[in-house]
Amino acid sequence: MTLNGVKCTVKNCKYNVQGHLCSASAIEVNVDGGGIQANNNEHTNCHTFEMNK
User: Fold this and answer.
1) For residue 44, which of 32, 27, 28 has the smallest C-alpha distance?
2) How far apart, in whole angstroms, are the C-alpha atoms of residue 44 and residue 17?
3) In the chain, is it the N or the C terminus that has fewer CB atoms within a 10 Å radius of its CB?
4) In whole angstroms, what is the distance from residue 15 CA to residue 35 CA?
5) Distance between CA atoms of residues 17 and 52, nearest Å
6) pTM of the shown model
């Protein structure tokens, strides 16, 4: 099962399926360096990432 509409291009994430979809049951995205606002998408990180073994 994948999260509807959630795309992921991180090839070495264990939740990446078919090379572009996220199969995690939920995701957590935070602002780089803390805080509550990002200036653009480059200042955010997916903290659901787990390296594929």
Assistant:
1) 32
2) 21
3) C
4) 26
5) 11
6) 0.77
Do residues 53 and 29 lie in contact, with contact meaning Cβ atoms separated by under 8 Å?
Answer: no
Q: Measured between alpha carbons, how far is 33 from 35 in angstroms, rounded to an integer?
A: 7
If you search the block for the tokens 């572009």, which residue do you land on? 20
Residue 38: partners with Cβ closer than 8 Å, 6 or more residues away: 31, 32, 44
Under a CB-based contact definition with an 8 Å cutoff, are residues 29 and 12 in contact? no
Return phi, psi of residue 45, to 5°.
-140, 145
Chain segment 20-50, per-residue pLDDT in tens? 999 999 999 999 989 999 999 889 999 999 9
